[in-house]
From TrEMBL:
One of its GO terms (biological process) is regulation of cell shape. The keyword DNA-binding does not apply. Its main location: cytoplasm. This is Tubulin-like protein CetZ. CDD domains: CetZ_tubulin-like. GO terms for molecular function: GTP binding. Involved in cell shape control. GO terms for cellular component: cytoplasm. Belongs to the CetZ family. The keyword GTP-binding applies. InterPro entries: CetZ, CetZ_C, FtsZ/CetZ, Tubulin/FtsZ-like_C, Tubulin/FtsZ_GTPase_sf, Tubulin_CS, Tubulin_FtsZ_GTPase. Keywords: Cell shape, Cytoplasm, GTP-binding, Nucleotide-binding.
Length: 362
């Protein structure tokens, strides 16, 4: 799926770079362009693609300091500059746009949903969000910001693919120490997903294409992406168990949003040497995903790759009702209630996360 990335804020820019580098390293060519947008000049300095500094009149290149309302305002005033940078990048063959941001900060948290809304008005291709949820040890400002951003981002984007910063953390590793490895895990998952949707000439019809990714995400709301890999035997028949076990691990322990298993739709992609992918195994794994997600819309396909491993990707669409998300929303609500000073000038937090509001995400 040929895509253009727009990283908003510090985490957004870093993750966009990681995705660009992964795509280049693997030689996939699915990432067709990238732009980074920020209010902080220093965060744009090391990025190897076009950058746009917004809000110079308000914050003079120093960032919005975690104020996501200011992040949203600045994006609103300077949208035109971002759109100009995209001119000529979103071209006829572009199949999707990804707006990438950390939800807990200021620029990305406030700016990404605003930019997404503008992009949807202009472009016909799906505009997806790739959003990072703060880990549970991050401060209350991050939780509150992310709670508010999540809601608007999910509403504006065609689907919001969420990554929990606690998802890929090793024991004893702080969130900051873990950034590099988390970013790598995310780039690998998203990079493989985009590449799997590329047409591969001369191979069987069981390969995945972009429309299957788009259809899996069609119900909107929140999405999650799981991954696991194992060593493969040369003979497909011997890999049935490997496909089953990587599928289970991808969904149950390798997901970007752990514990999100109830889904509206899913796409199971088995990557590996074409001769090593067992048809029977893929079908069995697909049925298992159906049972586990409670969805009758589980698509399945191959991603032929030259590798001595079998890797499984599970994309889930419509996972808003997952336990992990509810835990996070509760955390955001608690953090907002504790934030006595801020609470006085904000809307009633209790109102924000009623079930009706959650339904609005759908
Ligand atoms: P902004 O520049 O104002 O948009 O703020 P940030 O992008 O720094 O957003 C802060 C949030 O993003 C926090 O929840 C951080 O934990 C998270 N974050 C910052 N940098 C990274 C990163 O490189 N990787 C990941 N996974 N999360 C990050």
């Amino acid at each position: 799926m040929k895509s253009v990335l727009i990283g908003v804020g510090q985490a957004g820019g870093k993750l966009a770079r990681e995705l660009v580098e992964y795509d280049e390293r693997m030689g996939f060519g699915s990432v067709r362009g990238a732009v980074a947008v920020n209010t902080a000049k220093t965060d744009l300095q090391d990025l190897p693609f076009e950058t746009v500094l917004i809000g110079q009149d308000r914050v003079k290149g120093h960032g919005v300091g975690g104020d996501n309302e200011l992040g949203a305002e600045v994006m609103q005033s300077d949208t035109q500059e971002v759109l100009s940078a995209l001119d000529g990048r979103v071209v006829a063959g572009t199949e999707s746009i990804f707006v990438v941001a950390g939800l807990g900060g200021g620029t990305g948290s406030g700016g990404a949903p605003v930019l997404t809304r503008e992009l949807k008005r202009i472009y016909d291709v799906p505009v997806y969000g790739l959003g990072i949820l703060p880990g549970k040890d991050e401060g209350s400002m991050y939780q509150v910001n992310a709670g508010r951003s999540l809601k608007t981002f999910a509403r504006e984007a065609d689907s919001l693919l969420l990554v929990d910063n606690d998802a890929f953390r090793s024991v004893g590793e702080s969130v900051t120490e873990g950034y590099d490895s988390i970013n790598h895990e995310i780039a690998q998952r998203v990079g493989l997903l985009l590449a799997s949707g590329e047409a591969v000439e001369g191979v069987a019809e069981s390969v995945v294409d972009s429309s299957e990714i788009i259809n899996t995400l069609r119900s909107g709301g929140i999405a999650a992406l799981g991954y696991a890999s194992a060593e493969a035997a040369p003979d497909a028949e011997e890999n049935i168990n490997a496909v089953m076990s990587t599928t289970r691990r991808a969904l149950l322990t390798g997901s970007s949003l752990p514990d999100a298993t109830d889904a509206d739709a899913a796409l199971l992609i088995v990557a590996g040497d074409q001769d090593a992918i067992p048809r029977k195994g893929v079908e069995r794994a697909r049925r298992w995903v159906e049972e586990e997600t409670g969805s009758l819309q589980v698509r399945g396909g191959d991603f032929p790759l030259s590798s001595d491993r079998i890797a499984t990707l599970v994309l889930l669409g419509g996972v808003e009702r997952s336990e992990r998300l509810e835990t996070f929303l509760q955390r955001a609500k608690d953090a907002q209630e504790e934030d006595v000073e801020g609470a006085a000038e904000r809307t009633d937090p209790a109102e924000q996360w009623t079930n009706d509001e959650l339904d609005d995400l759908l």
